[in-house]
């Protein structure tokens, strides 16, 4: 959610700068994720000054150029070569001095340098309006009024406004803060100030009711306020209104629609403006749709309505999906003269279901489905009507119609201040607790002996219990104001060693020490990423189509992180994540803890003495093997990887369970996540890993006193036989003396029989109690040869 700093200051008087306000908002629960400077003109005209052309003479070497001298208020006049046909002596102009960056309407910004143009020195630029973003004309330079002060900043002369946009990561429970008024309420409570509410005292309603309203479904539409405005002129909004909307990323459309958007973001109350002349029978009916009824929305898509959809209709047809989206022919157009303005309070569940049913997410539905303020509809209507009169003319031509048969009541319950102190952990006085509660707009009535009855306004849909009040007190009082005690009571963990949290920290520290970065991603993902839709855990009420199932793997969480970084030119990545995956197996919900690793890009950036070294399969294998070695896990069987998300790779098996899979991510998976290049990925079953550690006993022994020996074998084998298979055969053949097996040469070519390859293997043998004899060594090698020939049909190559 975006909040304008200058707009916010209309509600609360403060001299705190944007950084200070963002820190306060973050401390009280409205986390500011970013601050962006907004300028009405790109570059803010920084470095541009007002100058006067003193002389203007023909350039000696160019017919279309003039050599001017310009007074910009400095000691010396500036000589500037200008090609504008209208430049003349005595003019007041805008000058970009040397070192200034200019931001034209078209093209990239450029810096003004001292230069020679056709042999004449030029110490700046006399500007046209399109060259500095003040207009579209390029017929000549801007000529300013004679009273323009020489040497003055162009920024001050043109009154360029600056603003800051605060990006707030609004949590779903804080629907009340989805507006400038809502954010200001929290700031006012923290700063103990009054909120400056826009005055609607000049509002005067008309006589009669031009459009009648009937609400058939009073459960889904609990309040419907409306009025009519006649004689408006639809046009572009004035500059101040456009700038307010642009500052928060809203595109201006026309003055009527812009006012409704302005009030929505100002007060948090969605409005809808109808062309009153298109309402058949001058009668609005709020009813449920007919099952299967066709309806074309503003995006020109025909949708089939459900009988559960609440619709705003006239006597002939639906006009819009209540609280969600307008119809194609219901809104204001350039020919609109008379406006019917709606300000309603719709049931959150009804709006949320309709929004999800039709996959429509709008600023209005965002607020309605979380809960708006039922008490603000009439005020918002007056505020919008006065703004429409200001920017579009016309007159209020009807009374306010306000259908509100059963007012929404505040949440009334009791709190005990001793409970507040107990849960917060600090001795806060009753007076301060009550002051904070009142500052939040909550009515408080004493019931005696530290017990108070509170009446929470209905717009605070998240404050319905005593514990919610305690949370409100704590966030306004300040989490940072709760001191840590010298002694902290905690229960001891007596679980069997190794403790899973200790192991997780150990693994994380090792990975970080080796250049990995930990990521934490959302467990919700999209259906396109799941392995098997039949086993997918689907969300009954998803926030969006991209967050509609629980993830079945950590792969796509890693790939999305890779894609995000690649698009920001950060292509060399080593990532890891601890997370859970979710499945339904035979009707039973299951979750599994996993550890994933992902590497991509270059292992080492290019240096003066070497090129960049791209990562490969062996880098992810090295990371996996290092982790296995660090945890001292043994007796792992190596196999070819199984799984559609790998193009190739290996898996280690512990007993009958897969311990880890690793390899190159398949092209299909990379395309789904929009990832470029190769990604190498590993995923550990954390439960299998923990069990392996618990069963393993670490022992220490002296370094062997007797030397190891090495022997080599060259084998001719079938193409499909892997090194992993050969290594398993060797380890089964000699368990005591064989310490390691490595492949140091592979050959495939036309000098070999078809479908054959040559492997050169190195075997390390060692007896830790005595020196090996040639007889022992030859015996082991002969057994290896025999088993290689027997199990995979290997031929021993000699010479």
Q: What topology emerges from the helices and strands here?
A:
Elements: E1 2-4, H1 5-8, H2 18-27, E2 32-39, E3 48-58, E4 66-71, E5 78-82, E6 92-97, E7 101-102, E8 110-111, E9 115-117, E10 120-122, E11 124-126, H3 154-157, E12 162-168, H4 180-191, E13 212-215, E14 221-230, H5 239-247, H6 255-267, E15 272-275, E16 283-288, E17 294-296, E18 302-304, E19 310-313, E20 318-321, E21 325-326, E22 339-346, H7 348-357, H8 363-368, H9 377-392, E23 395-396, E24 401-403, E25 411-416, H10 417-424, H11 430-439, E26 443-448, E27 451-456, H12 466-477, H13 500-513, E28 517-518, E29 524-525, E30 549-550, H14 555-566, E31 573-585, E32 588-600, E33 602-604, E34 613-614, H15 617-630, E35 637-640, E36 646-654, E37 657-665, H16 667-672, E38 679-685, H17 686-695, E39 709-718, H18 723-733, E40 738-747, E41 756-765, H19 774-792, E42 795-797
Parallel strand pairs: 13-16, 28-31
Antiparallel strand pairs: 1-12, 2-12, 3-4, 3-6, 4-5, 6-11, 7-8, 9-10, 14-22, 14-23, 14-24, 15-22, 16-19, 17-18, 19-20, 20-21, 25-27, 26-27, 29-30, 31-32, 32-38, 33-34, 35-36, 36-37, 37-38, 39-41, 39-42, 40-41
Helix pairs in contact: 5-6, 6-9, 10-12, 18-19
